[in-house]
Give the backbone structure.
Amino acid sequence: MKRTRTVLVTGGAGGIGRAVAAAFTAAGDTVVIADRDAQRVGETAEALGVHSRVLDITDAASVKRELDSVQAELGPVEVLVNNAGLLTVHGALLDLPGDDLDTILRTNVVGTFRMTQQVARRMVDAGVAGAIVNISSIGGRQPTPGMGGYESSKAAVDALTRWAAIELAEHGIRVNAVAPGPVLTEMIAVGMPEGSPQRQAWEGRIPLRRLAAMDDVAAAAVFLAGDTAAHITGISLPVDGGQLLT
Protein backbone atom coordinates (compact mmCIF):
# COMPACT_ATOMS: atom_id res chain seq x y z
CA MET A 1 0.00 0.00 0.00
CA LYS A 2 1.30 3.46 -0.92
CA ARG A 3 2.38 5.59 2.03
CA THR A 4 0.67 8.95 2.38
CA ARG A 5 3.12 11.84 2.02
CA THR A 6 2.87 15.56 2.77
CA VAL A 7 3.19 17.38 -0.55
CA LEU A 8 3.60 21.14 -0.89
CA VAL A 9 2.82 22.78 -4.24
CA THR A 10 3.71 26.45 -4.65
CA GLY A 11 1.70 28.55 -7.05
CA GLY A 12 -1.10 26.07 -6.47
CA ALA A 13 -4.10 28.38 -6.76
CA GLY A 14 -4.59 27.79 -10.48
CA GLY A 15 -3.19 26.59 -13.78
CA ILE A 16 -0.45 23.98 -13.68
CA GLY A 17 -0.15 24.21 -9.90
CA ARG A 18 -3.79 23.32 -9.41
CA ALA A 19 -3.47 20.37 -11.81
CA VAL A 20 -0.37 19.15 -9.95
CA ALA A 21 -2.16 19.41 -6.60
CA ALA A 22 -5.15 17.49 -7.96
CA ALA A 23 -2.88 14.74 -9.32
CA PHE A 24 -1.07 14.23 -6.01
CA THR A 25 -4.40 14.24 -4.18
CA ALA A 26 -5.72 11.57 -6.54
CA ALA A 27 -2.58 9.54 -5.78
CA GLY A 28 -3.51 9.55 -2.09
CA ASP A 29 -1.11 12.17 -0.75
CA THR A 30 -1.85 14.93 1.74
CA VAL A 31 -1.51 18.11 -0.30
CA VAL A 32 -0.88 21.71 0.72
CA ILE A 33 -1.16 24.41 -1.92
CA ALA A 34 0.61 27.71 -1.36
CA ASP A 35 0.04 30.96 -3.21
CA ARG A 36 0.29 34.68 -2.50
CA ASP A 37 -3.32 35.22 -3.67
CA ALA A 38 -5.17 34.52 -0.43
CA GLN A 39 -8.69 34.44 -1.83
CA ARG A 40 -7.86 32.28 -4.82
CA VAL A 41 -5.75 29.76 -2.89
CA GLY A 42 -8.51 29.38 -0.32
CA GLU A 43 -11.14 28.79 -2.99
CA THR A 44 -8.94 26.28 -4.83
CA ALA A 45 -8.13 24.41 -1.62
CA GLU A 46 -11.81 24.11 -0.79
CA ALA A 47 -12.62 22.87 -4.29
CA LEU A 48 -9.85 20.24 -4.23
CA GLY A 49 -10.22 19.25 -0.59
CA VAL A 50 -6.62 20.13 0.26
CA HIS A 51 -4.82 22.38 2.75
CA SER A 52 -3.73 25.90 1.87
CA ARG A 53 -1.20 28.52 2.93
CA VAL A 54 -0.73 32.13 1.85
CA LEU A 55 2.95 32.26 0.92
CA ASP A 56 5.12 34.58 -1.16
CA ILE A 57 8.26 32.78 -2.36
CA THR A 58 10.08 36.12 -2.70
CA ASP A 59 9.60 36.88 1.00
CA ALA A 60 11.98 34.97 3.30
CA ALA A 61 9.86 35.63 6.40
CA SER A 62 6.73 34.35 4.64
CA VAL A 63 8.52 31.17 3.54
CA LYS A 64 9.81 30.41 7.03
CA ARG A 65 6.52 31.17 8.73
CA GLU A 66 4.40 29.01 6.47
CA LEU A 67 6.84 26.09 6.32
CA ASP A 68 6.95 26.08 10.12
CA SER A 69 3.14 26.11 10.15
CA VAL A 70 2.86 23.20 7.70
CA GLN A 71 5.39 21.15 9.64
CA ALA A 72 3.63 21.79 12.94
CA GLU A 73 0.29 20.66 11.51
CA LEU A 74 1.24 17.90 9.08
CA GLY A 75 4.85 16.98 9.75
CA PRO A 76 7.82 17.63 7.46
CA VAL A 77 7.17 18.27 3.78
CA GLU A 78 8.20 15.11 1.93
CA VAL A 79 7.56 16.33 -1.61
CA LEU A 80 8.03 19.93 -2.74
CA VAL A 81 6.82 21.07 -6.15
CA ASN A 82 8.31 24.46 -7.01
CA ASN A 83 5.67 25.66 -9.44
CA ALA A 84 5.31 29.33 -8.45
CA GLY A 85 6.90 31.67 -10.93
CA LEU A 86 6.48 34.73 -13.09
CA LEU A 87 5.56 34.16 -16.74
CA THR A 88 3.91 37.39 -17.84
CA VAL A 89 6.88 39.80 -17.98
CA HIS A 90 8.51 39.74 -21.41
CA GLY A 91 10.53 41.95 -23.72
CA ALA A 92 13.17 41.92 -26.41
CA LEU A 93 16.83 42.07 -25.38
CA LEU A 94 17.18 45.69 -26.50
CA ASP A 95 13.96 46.78 -24.79
CA LEU A 96 13.48 44.82 -21.55
CA PRO A 97 14.05 47.11 -18.54
CA GLY A 98 16.70 45.86 -16.17
CA ASP A 99 14.28 46.15 -13.26
CA ASP A 100 11.92 43.77 -15.04
CA LEU A 101 14.68 41.20 -15.48
CA ASP A 102 15.53 41.59 -11.80
CA THR A 103 11.89 40.86 -10.90
CA ILE A 104 11.85 37.76 -13.10
CA LEU A 105 15.07 36.38 -11.62
CA ARG A 106 14.11 37.25 -8.05
CA THR A 107 10.87 35.29 -8.41
CA ASN A 108 11.75 32.37 -10.65
CA VAL A 109 15.32 31.74 -9.52
CA VAL A 110 15.81 33.17 -6.03
CA GLY A 111 12.29 32.19 -4.97
CA THR A 112 12.82 28.62 -6.17
CA PHE A 113 16.21 28.53 -4.46
CA ARG A 114 14.73 29.80 -1.20
CA MET A 115 11.96 27.20 -1.16
CA THR A 116 14.38 24.41 -2.08
CA GLN A 117 16.87 25.42 0.59
CA GLN A 118 14.32 25.83 3.38
CA VAL A 119 12.42 22.62 2.64
CA ALA A 120 15.64 20.62 2.14
CA ARG A 121 17.00 21.83 5.48
CA ARG A 122 13.85 20.58 7.18
CA MET A 123 14.03 17.26 5.32
CA VAL A 124 17.63 16.74 6.40
CA ASP A 125 16.87 17.66 10.02
CA ALA A 126 13.93 15.23 10.09
CA GLY A 127 15.77 12.44 8.26
CA VAL A 128 13.29 12.56 5.37
CA ALA A 129 14.46 11.11 2.05
CA GLY A 130 12.12 13.31 0.09
CA ALA A 131 11.74 14.59 -3.45
CA ILE A 132 11.76 18.06 -4.97
CA VAL A 133 10.32 18.76 -8.41
CA ASN A 134 10.89 22.11 -10.09
CA ILE A 135 8.66 23.34 -12.89
CA SER A 136 11.04 24.59 -15.56
CA SER A 137 10.52 25.12 -19.31
CA ILE A 138 11.99 23.95 -22.58
CA GLY A 139 12.56 27.67 -23.14
CA GLY A 140 15.68 27.26 -21.05
CA ARG A 141 17.08 25.27 -23.98
CA GLN A 142 15.18 26.61 -27.01
CA PRO A 143 14.90 30.41 -27.29
CA THR A 144 11.85 32.33 -28.42
CA PRO A 145 12.33 36.01 -29.39
CA GLY A 146 10.93 38.34 -26.77
CA MET A 147 10.90 35.71 -24.00
CA GLY A 148 14.59 35.66 -23.15
CA GLY A 149 14.23 36.99 -19.62
CA TYR A 150 11.81 34.23 -18.64
CA GLU A 151 13.81 31.61 -20.54
CA SER A 152 17.06 32.68 -18.87
CA SER A 153 15.39 32.21 -15.50
CA LYS A 154 14.32 28.69 -16.44
CA ALA A 155 17.82 27.81 -17.64
CA ALA A 156 18.92 28.86 -14.16
CA VAL A 157 16.20 26.67 -12.61
CA ASP A 158 17.62 23.70 -14.53
CA ALA A 159 21.09 24.52 -13.18
CA LEU A 160 19.66 24.88 -9.68
CA THR A 161 18.03 21.47 -10.09
CA ARG A 162 21.37 19.85 -10.87
CA TRP A 163 23.10 21.76 -8.06
CA ALA A 164 20.55 20.65 -5.49
CA ALA A 165 20.51 17.08 -6.81
CA ILE A 166 24.26 16.55 -6.47
CA GLU A 167 24.47 18.07 -2.99
CA LEU A 168 21.31 16.49 -1.54
CA ALA A 169 21.90 13.00 -2.88
CA GLU A 170 23.86 12.01 0.23
CA HIS A 171 20.69 12.66 2.24
CA GLY A 172 18.55 10.52 -0.06
CA ILE A 173 16.74 13.58 -1.41
CA ARG A 174 16.07 13.53 -5.14
CA VAL A 175 15.71 16.75 -7.14
CA ASN A 176 14.35 16.87 -10.68
CA ALA A 177 12.51 19.26 -12.97
CA VAL A 178 9.66 19.06 -15.44
CA ALA A 179 10.23 21.23 -18.52
CA PRO A 180 6.98 21.82 -20.43
CA GLY A 181 6.66 23.36 -23.82
CA PRO A 182 3.55 25.47 -24.42
CA VAL A 183 0.79 24.36 -22.04
CA LEU A 184 -2.94 24.71 -22.64
CA THR A 185 -3.79 26.69 -19.51
CA GLU A 186 -7.11 28.45 -19.04
CA MET A 187 -5.52 31.74 -20.10
CA ILE A 188 -4.15 30.32 -23.35
CA ALA A 189 -7.40 28.50 -24.12
CA VAL A 190 -9.25 31.84 -23.94
CA GLY A 191 -6.59 33.98 -25.60
CA MET A 192 -5.77 31.50 -28.37
CA PRO A 193 -8.84 29.37 -29.05
CA GLU A 194 -8.57 26.20 -31.09
CA GLY A 195 -8.21 26.95 -34.79
CA SER A 196 -6.91 30.50 -34.28
CA PRO A 197 -3.83 31.49 -36.30
CA GLN A 198 -1.80 32.05 -33.12
CA ARG A 199 -2.70 28.60 -31.78
CA GLN A 200 -1.93 26.97 -35.12
CA ALA A 201 1.47 28.69 -35.21
CA TRP A 202 2.35 27.28 -31.79
CA GLU A 203 1.09 23.82 -32.64
CA GLY A 204 3.03 23.91 -35.89
CA ARG A 205 6.32 23.87 -33.93
CA ILE A 206 5.35 20.68 -32.08
CA PRO A 207 5.80 17.28 -33.78
CA LEU A 208 2.79 15.82 -31.90
CA ARG A 209 0.77 18.83 -33.13
CA ARG A 210 -0.87 19.81 -29.85
CA LEU A 211 -0.08 21.88 -26.81
CA ALA A 212 0.57 20.03 -23.58
CA ALA A 213 -2.43 19.56 -21.32
CA MET A 214 -1.94 20.65 -17.73
CA ASP A 215 -2.52 17.03 -16.71
CA ASP A 216 0.48 16.01 -18.88
CA VAL A 217 2.72 18.21 -16.77
CA ALA A 218 1.10 17.08 -13.52
CA ALA A 219 1.60 13.40 -14.40
CA ALA A 220 5.32 14.01 -15.00
CA ALA A 221 5.64 15.73 -11.61
CA VAL A 222 3.91 12.84 -9.83
CA PHE A 223 6.15 10.35 -11.63
CA LEU A 224 9.39 12.14 -10.73
CA ALA A 225 8.33 12.40 -7.09
CA GLY A 226 7.32 8.75 -6.86
CA ASP A 227 8.93 5.42 -6.10
CA THR A 228 9.04 4.40 -9.76
CA ALA A 229 11.56 7.22 -10.29
CA ALA A 230 13.61 6.23 -7.24
CA HIS A 231 16.91 6.17 -9.17
CA ILE A 232 16.33 9.38 -11.12
CA THR A 233 17.80 12.67 -9.91
CA GLY A 234 19.19 15.80 -11.51
CA ILE A 235 17.20 15.68 -14.75
CA SER A 236 14.94 18.20 -16.47
CA LEU A 237 12.29 16.14 -18.23
CA PRO A 238 10.80 17.75 -21.35
CA VAL A 239 7.02 17.49 -21.71
CA ASP A 240 6.89 19.19 -25.07
CA GLY A 241 5.43 16.87 -27.70
CA GLY A 242 8.86 16.65 -29.30
CA GLN A 243 9.40 20.39 -29.78
CA LEU A 244 13.04 20.17 -28.74
CA LEU A 245 13.60 17.82 -31.68
CA THR A 246 12.89 20.58 -34.17
